[in-house]
Amino acid sequence: MADTTTEYGTILGADSNFKGEMSFETAAKILGRFEGSINAKGRVNVADGSKCKAAVKAKEVSVEGHIEGNVDAGDRVELKPKGSIVGDISAARMTMADGASIDGHCRIGVNGHAGKSSANTEVKPAAQSQQQQQQQVAAAKK
C-alpha cells in the first residue's frame, strides 16, 4: 500500500477532531483524531501519530497510528512498526511489522472476513465450559 496523499479521496487533517460516522467509496487517510465508525469500500490509512477510537470496516486497513475498536477488513490489515490496535481484528490477510501491537482477538484467513463467518458453528467459551461441567457432573454420578 503506497502512502502518497494524492491517492486519497478523503483526508482528515492532523489538526482535526471528528466525531461521528464516516463512509466513503475510495480511500481515506486519518491524520488527526477520529471517534465513531468508519465504513469504506476502499482503503483506510490511520497515519503515524493519529488516534482513531472507532469500529473500522473497509476493504483494506493500514495502521501506523492507533485504533481503539474492532477492525473488519474484507481484504487485509497492515500494521506498520508504530501501529497499534486495541480491539478485535477480522480479515482475509494480515501483515504485522516488528514493533506493532495488538490487544484483542484476531480472525485471519478464509473465515477471517466477517462476511464469510461461520457464526452458526462457533461454540462460545462460556457455553462450552458449562457443557463440560454438565458432562463431568454426569460422569461423577455414574
Keywords:
142 residues, 12% helix, mainly beta, 1 helix, twelve-stranded parallel β-sheet, disordered N terminus, elongated
Explain this structure to me?
With 142 residues, the chain is mainly beta. It has one domain (5-141). 12% of the residues lie in helices and 48% in strands. The protein has 1 helix and 12 strands, in the order ββββββββββββα. The chain has one helix at residues 125-141, and strands spanning 10-12, 17-24, 28-30, 33-40, 43-46, 51-63, 66-68, 71-79, 84-86, 89-96, 101-103, 106-108. Strands 1, 2, 3, 4, 5, 6, 7, 8, 9, 10, 11 and 12 form a 12-stranded parallel beta sheet that branches. The longest helix has 17 residues, at 125-141. Residues 1-5 and 114-128 have low confidence and may be disordered.
Tell me briefly what this model is.
With 142 residues, this protein is mainly beta. The chain has one helix spanning 125-141; strands spanning 10-12, 17-24, 28-30, 33-40, 43-46, 51-63, 66-68, 71-79, 84-86, 89-96, 101-103, 106-108.
